[in-house]
Automatic annotation (TrEMBL):
Coiled coil: none annotated. GO terms for biological process: cytokinin metabolic process; glycoside biosynthetic process. One of its GO terms (molecular function) is UDP-glucosyltransferase activity. Keywords: Glycosyltransferase, Transferase. Belongs to the UDP-glycosyltransferase family. InterPro entries: Glyco_transf_N, UDP_glucos_trans, UDP_glycos_trans_CS. This is Glycosyltransferase. CDD domains: GT1_Gtf-like. Pfam families: Glyco_transf_N, UDPGT. Residues 16-248 form the Glycosyltransferase N-terminal domain. Its EC number is 2.4.1.-. SUPFAM superfamilies: UDP-Glycosyltransferase/glycogen phosphorylase (SSF53756).
Length: 471
């Protein structure tokens, strides 16, 4: 991956460093850091250690779209944690924040001692130990401060826009961008559980000893917000890099799922831009009532669809398939069999988005889904559920203007009726031939591809990060 010039320049120095990657134990965070591990390992002679549990390593490896030769060079550590059985996601709960993220925190705390021992062992063998930890794993790596040749960098898995708003909110600053007031921002109410907020605060406290920040975003999508984030840095030694997107941006020809999943074969037979992908990531569980409304709305829209009908992941108990029996309207599957495909297990989301027949994405606006959709030039119908998603939805629909709103955050406790689903699906898919929204999405995807190519801004930032850690 690295330029030859760069490899020669740093060949000697990079022998002397080792990188330890510490992801947060939840699907939305595992693969981004696995992709970053591959990127770093693709630079000559940089050894990368990826620290997790057996279950989460399995989950990450099975679900990653691996387009890197360097994957085999990563050293995986599987540290034991007690099995926390989190309660089943409650699809009827008003607060949609998933309880399993809470148990991910509980599991994570058991990694602190083994991670400490690993850092100490590596510190005696290498001149520098570079730790890259998820922003939710600050407390797990905090003992690095007692190791003189170790330094840590915080990895932020969310958008720069969301992060900036969180920081401003904490500092009680007005939301001013280019002297314009950002209005109608969704409130934080309903985004997190109070326990999770407390845990996040604890983790953010641990960040203050870190040497820099890595953002899972790119200048193509978020340049103004990245510049504003730079201004928030209080510690002058702290450096920042935007190294996203981490998903492959071109169709992964030899990817694990390519052409093997029925929905991809079905997509091959459809018209360009004619299919909408409906998927809500790994943390959403809908009530039966809401699922019925979506089903009726999709059917009445008469649009072609791929609907990933799965429940939220469950804590550190990794199940490939959802065990809940989800009720659909009577006769639905038979009636829509020419129009749509239901996927009840892990869907090849990136391959679906990159397929030319896919023309829209009905999404919860998890940040990975946003980056993947934008990378593939697919406009989004935004239906946020919790966490950073309401703000991502604003970025997508109001700032980047590549999507439409399904349901305003203020109405989050109301059932979204089938007529609303129908209307939104029709509206998103109406622009098959190209309109402003679709053209803008295509434009951004082209720019993102340029940014990851040789000489592009992402490659420049990545080279700069590698130069810094191998200095
Ligand atoms: O059947 C599936 C379901 C998901 N995915 C992939 O799984 C990831 C899902 O990530 P994301 O879209 O971010 O959703 P969540 O799983 O909900 O992610 C959590 O983590 C994100 C990053 O911190 C946050 O932005 C979200 O709010 C939080 O819910 C994406 O890469 C998808 O492509 C599949 O490939 N197939």
């Amino acid at each position: 991956m690295a330029s030859n010039l760069h490899i020669c320049k740093n060949n000697q120095k990079s022998q002397k460093i080792v990188v330890v990657i510490v992801p947060f134990l939840a699907q939305g965070h595992l693969n981004q850091l696995l992709q970053l591990s591959c990127l770093i390992a693709s630079y000559n002679n940089i050894k990368v250690h990826y620290v997790s549990t057996k279950t989460h390593n399995l989950q990450a490896k099975l679900r990653v779209i691996n387009s890197f030769d360097s994957f085999s060079k990563i050293h995986f550590h599987e540290f034991p944690t007690p099995s926390f059985i989190s309660p089943n996601p409650n699809p009827n709960s008003r607060i949609k924040f998933p309880s399993h993220l809470q148990s991910s925190f509980e599991s994570s705390s058991y990694l602190r001692n083994p991670v400490k021992r690993l850092i100490q062992t590596l510190s005696s063998k290498y001149q520098r130990v570079v730790i890259i930890n998820d922003s939710l794993m600050g407390s797990v790596v905090q003992d690095f401060v007692s190791v003189p040749n170790a330094e840590a960098y915080t990895f932020h898995s969310v958008s720069a826009f969301t992060l900036l708003l969180f920081i401003w909110e904490r500092k009680k600053r007005p939301f001013l961008i280019d002297s314009e007031m950002l209005i109608d921002l969704p409130s934080l109410e309903g985004c997190f559980s109070p326990e999770f907020e407390k845990l996040m605060k604890r983790e953010y406290e641990c960040m203050k000893f870190n040497s820099g920040k890595i953002y899972n975003t790119c200048r193509v999508m978020e340049s103004p917000f990245l510049d504003l984030l730079l201004k928030e840095v209080t510690n002058n030694n702290e450096k920042q890099w935007a190294l996203g997107p981490f998903n492959p941006v071109t169709f992964p020809k030899n990817g694990p799922n390519t052409k093997s999943h029925t929905c991809l074969l079905w997509l091959d037979k459809q018209e360009p831009n004619s299919v909408i992908l409906v998927s809500f990531g790994t943390t959403t569980s809908f009530s039966d009532e809401q699922i019925k409304e979506i089903a009726i709305g999709l059917e009445q829209s008469e649009q072609k669809f791929i609907w990933v009908l799965r429940d939220a992941d469950k804590g550190n108990v990794f199940t490939k398939d959802s065990s809940r029996k989800i009720e659909l309207p009577k006769g639905f599957e038979e009636r829509v069999k020419e129009k749509g495909i239901l996927v009840r297990d892990w869907a090849p989301q990136l391959e679906i988005l990159s397929h030319c027949s896919t023309g829209g994405f009905l999404s919860h606006c998890g940040w990975n889904s946003c980056m993947e959709s934008v990378s593939m030039g697919v406009p989004i119908a935004a239906w946020p559920m919790h966490s950073d998603q309401p703000r991502n939805a604003v970025l997508i629909t109001k700032i980047l203007k590549i999507g439409i709103v399904v349901r305003e955050w203020a109405n989050r406790n109301e059932l979204v009726k089938s007529n609303v689903v129908k209307k939104c699906v029709e509206k998103l898919m109406a622009s098959k031939g190209g309109d402003e929204m679709r053209n803008k999405a295509k434009y951004l995807s082209v720019e993102i591809r340029k940014s990851v190519a040789e000489g592009g801004i992402k490659r420049i930032e990545l080279d700069s990060f590698i130069s810094h850690i191998t200095r």
